[in-house]
Design goal:
- There is one protein chain.
- This protein is an alpha+beta fold and 301 residues long.
- The chain folds into two domains: 72 residues, no CATH class; 178 residues, Jelly Rolls (Sandwich).
- The protein has five helices and 17 strands.
- Strands 1, 3, 4, 8, 13, 14, 15 and 17 form an eight-stranded antiparallel beta sheet that branches. Strands 2-7-16-9-10-11-12 form a seven-stranded antiparallel beta sheet, with no helix packed on it.
- Strand 9 and strand 10 form a beta hairpin.
- The longest helix is centred in the first third of the chain and has 23 residues.
Length: 301
């Protein structure tokens, strides 16, 4: 049975490779039909993946083909699969903090270790307001540095690339998480110089208290726009697809592995964005391939 399914998928793959370049130049009606066919093919691929009906590598190749031809319908703002093994060129990613590297799987990877401090003292005795001053005076510089190092610190790794992204966008990327704590962020930047405007936050070990969130940044403050009502865990070390989009009607969505987990409206920033950033706030994450393109038009009733 598995062999038959593999053969069927192979035939489908040959069909798309041979015919899609021809169909891609047809009229708008045909393009709508083709878009529907691509969506159906995506669903078939995901079902085959769930049933283990074909090798994962083969299914990844099918996904790449679908993504390639779907991109022909819309403007592509950014595309990077890190196949050249270097994140510094074409496009250029600038590391603002921490470290990043392209791994053997051709993904941009980063690891940030969270440092935990000892449990605070629970004594109910109130210390004198002068006690801290006396302690600072008597302690040596070495003792001070050791005390500061033991404090709770979460390091951050951040990288960004400058590229103009339209206000109606879709960020479509693959994420691999091997984390048990911490979080990672996808950030849309805007303004001159570019600063964060929207952040999509994934917190490892997700739950009702740690959902996926969309946050707006303004004047140095963070405003939560909405949070997911489903909590898919992506920390199994396998690849997961994240789609974060906003259409021309300001409908903001987040989908994980093809399933919508967040849907709301947000249109505060309407000017084109100036770049995309990836942030690791504790954990081990891999990104790629990354595709940012013009969002699909909202469907009219």
């Amino acid at each position: 049975m598995k062999i038959r399914r593999c053969v069927l998928l192979l035939l489908l793959w040959m069909f798309w490779v041979i015919l899609l370049p021809v169909i891609g130049h047809t009229a708008d009606t045909d393009r709508q039909v083709l878009n529907a066919l691509l969506t159906e093919l995506e669903q078939k691929i995901e079902k085959a993946d769930e049933r283990k009906a074909a090798p994962p590598k083969f299914l990844d190749e099918l996904r790449a083909i679908v993504k390639q031809y779907r991109a022909k319908f819309r403007v592509v703002f950014l595309s990077d699969d890190f196949s050249d093994g270097d994140y510094r060129y074409n496009p250029a990613w600038v590391v603002d903090s921490g470290s990043f590297q392209v791994n053997a799987s051709h993904r941009l990877s980063s690891e940030v270790v969270q440092e935990r401090s000892a449990a605070p003292q629970t004594s109910k005795e109130k210390s004198s307001p002068f006690a801290g001053i006396i302690r600072d005076v008597l302690s040596s510089p070495k003792e001070k540095s050791e005390t500061e190092a033991s404090a709770s610190v979460v390091k951050e790794a951040r990288t960004h690339t400058l590229v103009q992204i339209g206000p109606a966008f879709e960020v479509d990327l693959t994420l691999v998480s091997k984390s048990s704590s911490g979080s990672m962020e996808i950030v849309l930047m805007g303004g001159t110089p570019p600063i964060p405007q929207y952040r999509m936050v994934y917190q490892s070990a997700p739950s009702a208290e740690r959902p996926i969130q969309i946050i707006r940044e303004r004047d140095g403050r963070s405003y939560q726009i909405d949070s997911a009502n489903q909590y898919p865990s992506l920390d199994d070390g396998g690849p997961h697809r994240i789609q974060w989009s906003r259409d021309s009607q300001d409908r903001l969505r987040v989908a994980v592995d093809g399933k919508e987990v967040l849907s709301t409206y947000e249109g505060f920033y309407r000017s084109p964005f100036a770049g995309l950033a990836l942030v690791n706030k504790g954990g081990t994450y891999e990104w790629g391939p990354i595709l940012v393109l013009q969002a699909q038009e909202a469907k009219t009733q």
